[in-house]
């Protein structure tokens, strides 16, 4: 009897080896390599052996040939359509990930119901819940009257056979890809082999039928989508649904999109009746700020192409510890350390003996360097005990020399600030023209900002203080 073919696959990165090892040489993870039975198709792809099927000759096209613009399926959820680039593209595959309980199933069920209400055929397949559980959620969301086809199944072959039994749907939601299994791969559901094979079969169905397929993916403890990274390369768009569970705000962020921009963000608010769209997130994030307290600065940021105003809060308190605390929520801790070092080395502001607490209000996470100036203003305000003006926004990048650098989209930031009633902005030099009703004040050096907020001499008389020289 012939020996059954097998291979060893790393469950963390999907690397294939011919023998077992305790540590994967590709990703460095320990105890992640497991033995899996390999079918002839998988062995052929892995070993590079010649296939029995003869290929066919393709007709080549030229790059300069006119092509029609990709059509869009508008779902009716404007924030979702914004992130996808104006709607779903027929035949596309989208992978959406997020922490457990963040609201992925709620968002997709509302999207499916909204699209079904517009007359499109929508199929929602769940592999984690029973149909009764999904129906109860739909009743709570007020979507139980929508004509969404619902099924609870984990077999990929059964799902595709069911979808092919009627007219091609406009949207197919698979919740989630880690629960599916296919007979092509002899492995447990959720393993690298099963996730890759299941995703490949569903993506092939999307391309052949013209249906848009959304795959829900679990995330790891590091926030990355679980399973092989090759799935992210296979799909047309990768979206992440993120937010702080202690806050009601949720952000849908696109990290890959072959049919639209990759930096768009949709803002939602979790309510008792599901997710509601936030048309003006700046006004919502600034709704409960205390304008009389020191240590609070308003940052005029950009989330994708959308300007967004958010409050940055800082607390500087004397410390009795040998190593003062540094706590950051919603911002990069390494960037905070850099700003603190520049404030102390270039501006002479004594912070090494103080505990530093920094938080972005509303549970939002900021990644762009333009927040440096707002963070510095909040730190200086808290250290000096002086409240910042309530109608002024801040944005700018700080260099290691203490200089303030210009950032892109200055006009969009100023227009958003002016729309919300802000009358001034502290900006880098050459940041752009003034917006109507929002006057700009340029600062070239971080020391200038210290002098402006705390003119009574908090800085030490050190060599190079307030100079910004190297």
Automatic annotation (TrEMBL):
<dbReference type="InterPro" id="IPR027417">
    <property type="entry name" value="P-loop_NTPase"/>
</dbReference>
<dbReference type="InterPro" id="IPR020588">
    <property type="entry name" value="RecA_ATP-bd"/>
</dbReference>
<dbReference type="GO" id="GO:0000725">
    <property type="term" value="P:recombinational repair"/>
</dbReference>
<feature type="domain" description="RecA family profile 1">
    <location>
        <begin position="69"/>
        <end position="219"/>
    </location>
</feature>
<comment type="function">
    <text>Plays a role in repairing double-strand DNA breaks, probably involving stabilizing or processing branched DNA or blocked replication forks.</text>
</comment>
<keyword id="KW-0863">Zinc-finger</keyword>
<keyword id="KW-0547">Nucleotide-binding</keyword>
<dbReference type="InterPro" id="IPR003593">
    <property type="entry name" value="AAA+_ATPase"/>
</dbReference>
<dbReference type="GO" id="GO:0140664">
    <property type="term" value="F:ATP-dependent DNA damage sensor activity"/>
</dbReference>
<comment type="similarity">
    <text>Belongs to the RecA family. RadA subfamily.</text>
</comment>
<dbReference type="GO" id="GO:0003684">
    <property type="term" value="F:damaged DNA binding"/>
</dbReference>
<dbReference type="InterPro" id="IPR041166">
    <property type="entry name" value="Rubredoxin_2"/>
</dbReference>
<dbReference type="GO" id="GO:0005524">
    <property type="term" value="F:ATP binding"/>
</dbReference>
<keyword id="KW-0346">Stress response</keyword>
<dbReference type="Pfam" id="PF13541">
    <property type="entry name" value="ChlI"/>
</dbReference>
<keyword id="KW-0234">DNA repair</keyword>
<dbReference type="Pfam" id="PF13481">
    <property type="entry name" value="AAA_25"/>
</dbReference>
<protein>
    <recommendedName>
        <fullName>DNA repair protein RadA</fullName>
    </recommendedName>
</protein>
<keyword id="KW-0479">Metal-binding</keyword>
<dbReference type="Pfam" id="PF18073">
    <property type="entry name" value="Zn_ribbon_LapB"/>
</dbReference>
<feature type="short sequence motif" description="RadA KNRFG motif">
    <location>
        <begin position="256"/>
        <end position="260"/>
    </location>
</feature>
<dbReference type="InterPro" id="IPR004504">
    <property type="entry name" value="DNA_repair_RadA"/>
</dbReference>
<dbReference type="GO" id="GO:0016787">
    <property type="term" value="F:hydrolase activity"/>
</dbReference>
<keyword id="KW-0227">DNA damage</keyword>
<comment type="function">
    <text>DNA-dependent ATPase involved in processing of recombination intermediates, plays a role in repairing DNA breaks. Stimulates the branch migration of RecA-mediated strand transfer reactions, allowing the 3' invading strand to extend heteroduplex DNA faster. Binds ssDNA in the presence of ADP but not other nucleotides, has ATPase activity that is stimulated by ssDNA and various branched DNA structures, but inhibited by SSB. Does not have RecA's homology-searching function.</text>
</comment>
<feature type="binding site">
    <location>
        <begin position="98"/>
        <end position="105"/>
    </location>
    <ligand>
        <name>ATP</name>
    </ligand>
</feature>
<feature type="region of interest" description="Lon-protease-like">
    <location>
        <begin position="355"/>
        <end position="470"/>
    </location>
</feature>
<keyword id="KW-0067">ATP-binding</keyword>
<keyword id="KW-0238">DNA-binding</keyword>
<keyword id="KW-0862">Zinc</keyword>
<dbReference type="InterPro" id="IPR020568">
    <property type="entry name" value="Ribosomal_Su5_D2-typ_SF"/>
</dbReference>
<keyword id="KW-0378">Hydrolase</keyword>
<dbReference type="GO" id="GO:0008270">
    <property type="term" value="F:zinc ion binding"/>
</dbReference>
<dbReference type="InterPro" id="IPR014721">
    <property type="entry name" value="Ribsml_uS5_D2-typ_fold_subgr"/>
</dbReference>
<dbReference type="GO" id="GO:0005829">
    <property type="term" value="C:cytosol"/>
</dbReference>
């Amino acid at each position: 009897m012939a020996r059954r073919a097998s291979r060893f696959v790393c469950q963390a990165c999907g690397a294939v080896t011919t023998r077992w090892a305790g540590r994967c040489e590709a990703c460095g993870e320990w105890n992640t390599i497991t033995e899996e039975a390999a079918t002839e198709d998988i062995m052929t792809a892995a070993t590079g052996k010649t296939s029995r099927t003869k290929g066919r000759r393709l007709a080549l096209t030229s790059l300069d040939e006119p092509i029609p613009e990709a059509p869009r399926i508008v779902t009716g959820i404007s924030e979702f359509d914004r992130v996808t680039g104006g709607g779903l593209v027929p035949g596309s595959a989208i992978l959406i990930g997020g922490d457990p309980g963040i609201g992925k199933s709620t968002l997709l069920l509302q999207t499916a119901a909204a699209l079904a209400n517009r007359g499109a055929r929508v199929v929602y397949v769940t592999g984690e819940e029973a149909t009764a559980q999904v129906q109860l959620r739909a009743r709570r969301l007020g979507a139980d009257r929508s004509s969404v086809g619902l099924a609870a199944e984990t077999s990929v072959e059964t799902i595709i056979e069911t979808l092919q039994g009627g007219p091609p749907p406009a949207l197919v939601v698979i919740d989630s890809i880690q629960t599916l299994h296919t007979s092509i791969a002899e492995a447990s559901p959720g393993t690298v082999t099963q996730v890759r094979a299941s995703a490949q079969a569903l993506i092939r169905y999307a391309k052949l039928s013209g249906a848009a397929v959304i795959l829900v993916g679990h995330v790891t403890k590091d926030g990355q989508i679980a399973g092989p990274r090759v799935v992210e390369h296979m799909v047309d768009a990768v979206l992440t649904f993120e937010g702080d569970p202690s806050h009601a705000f949720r952000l849908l962020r696109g990290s890959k999109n072959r049919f639209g921009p990759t930096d768009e963000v949709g803002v939602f608010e979790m309510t008792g009746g599901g997710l509601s769209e936030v048309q003006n997130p700046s006004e919502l994030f600034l709704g409960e700020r205390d304008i009389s307290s020191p240590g609070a600065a308003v940052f005029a940021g950009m989330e994708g192409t959308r300007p967004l105003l958010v409050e940055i809060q800082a607390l500087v308190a004397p410390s009795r510890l040998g190593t003062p605390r540094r706590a950051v929520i919603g911002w990069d801790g390494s960037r905070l350390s850099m700003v603190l070092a520049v404030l102390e080395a270039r501006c002479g502001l004594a912070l090494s003996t103080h505990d530093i607490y920094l938080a972005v209000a509303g549970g939002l996470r900021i990644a762009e360097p333009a927040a440096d100036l707002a963070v510095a203003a909040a730190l200086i305000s808290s250290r000096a005990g002086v409240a910042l003006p309530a109608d002024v926004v801040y944005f700018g990048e700080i260099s290691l020399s203490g200089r303030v650098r210009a950032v892109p989209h200055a006009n969009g930031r100023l227009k958003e600030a002016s729309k919300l009633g802000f009358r001034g902005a502290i900006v880098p030099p050459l940041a752009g023209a003034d917006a109507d009703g929002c006057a700009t004040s340029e600062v070239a050096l971080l020391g200038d900002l210290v002098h402006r907020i705390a003119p009574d001499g908090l800085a030490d008389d050190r060599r190079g203080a307030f100079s910004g020289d190297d």
